[in-house]
Amino acid sequence: MKVLKCEICGSNDFIKQDGVFVCQSCGTKYSVEEAKKMMVEGTVDVKGTVQVDKTNEINNLLSLAQSAIDSVNGEEAYSYANRALEIEPQNPQAWFTKMKAAGLKAILKDLKVLDVIQAGNNAIKYSNGELTKDVYTYFLTKCLGDLQFCMTQLADTESIKRLYDANVALNAFKATENTLASDTILELILQQVDSVIKLRELVPNNVVSNDSEIAHLVGEVAKQWVYYTNALNDRFNVMGSSINDATVEKYRGILARIKEGLPEEHQNVISGEDITNPSKGACYVATAVYGSYDCPQVWTLRRFRDYTLDGSLAGQAFIKTYYAISPILVRMFGNTNWFKAMWKPILDKMVSKLQNKGYDSTPYNDKY
Q1: What integer pLDDT is reported at residue 172 of this predicted model?
Q2: Separation of alpha carbons 134 and 207, rounded Å
Q3: Residues 78-135 pLDDT 10s
Q4: Were both Cys, which of 18, 274, 277, 348 would link to 242 (CB 3.0–4.6 Å)?
Q5: Is the Cβ–Cβ distance between 217 and 136 less than 8 Å?
């Protein structure tokens, strides 16, 4: 006598209900005669269309996927979600779960933005719009998180500082170029940041206008975009450079697009003017000569730079040239006595003239 085994799914979990045997895995029903034949011969002809209800199996897979997500195990969650979709390719909750699992699989080389977008769009489509807000909330949350992650990676500049110093020693005038070419982290981030912003752009502006929770997230994304761009410029500063003016304008345009749809009371969450390209640690030669960026002589020179030189095209050109060359000179010779002895009388004379013209020598915060 053979064990009663379902011809459809292979399960041997049966209960007798209303005079028939019902498979507990797929719901197929067998008469007493069919059940006896299966136990004696091992097979039975199943005629007609059999509807296999695998709701329990799908729910179990999605429950396992959610547990994996809660444990921050993206690979496992992704696998369970895919198994659920193999059973029911149009299951909206399975697509939504796959979206979140894809987000957890993100690494610097691949932030999985395209996978998230595809799964999220399918979740909206197959739920007839019921999951729309949940998907848009996740899009914005991931956009915010990815920008924060990129900012953190950019802010870790210790290895780049060491590389730049080594390149200065080898060839000071190509140090910036050579360091930029070797900065793989910067390259990876720049390759992916446009797709990260796409997550915000997929959220319609009318949704932003009419949903306070979504609007709040968009405001946070806007602020984080500014923080990211400033971290990017700081990284360029470490390599003796800065983002150019065209890039500043491009990034301000992106900020404006991010803020589209925000209610009027939230439009001032952050301004495009907060995206700048200062060369931090400026007045390199003066700082090396006088020993501090914050001292009376350098405060005078910084005022002259911000309120006179920066006010004309010629002055701006001089500032850019100075910032391109002086960091290299200071790194090469800034600690030598002859360098300081050569520059100090020149700077002393300049500072004296500027102070006589009314440039103050009191503590000063840079204009930019």
Answers
A1: 65
A2: 12
A3: 999 999 999 999 999 999 999 999 999 999 999 999 999 999 999 999 999 999 999 9
A4: 277
A5: no
Q: Rounded to two decimals, what is the model's pTM?
A: 0.69
| Amino acid in position 99 | M
Q: Which residues is 107 bridged to in the sheet?
A: 110
Task: Give the DSSP H/E element, type plus range, for residue 332.
Answer: helix 313-333
Summarize pLDDT for 287-331 with one digit per residue, the tens: 778 877 778 998 899 889 888 988 888 888 887 777 667 777 776
Please state, as a whole number, how many other Cβ atoms lie within 10 Å of the Cβ of residue 274: 15
Separation CA 160–CA 166 (nearest Å) = 10
Which residues does 320 contact at the CB level (< 8 Å), separation at least 6?
Answer: none
- Residue 157 tokens read as 């500049």
Report H helices in 71-112.
74-87, 92-104
Residues 75, 185, 254, 147: is their CA dihedral positive or negative? positive
Measured at the alpha carbon of residue 103, what is the angle toward residues 190 and 122, in degrees to the nearest 5?
110
Best CA proximity match to 60, nearest among 102, 92, 29, 94:
94
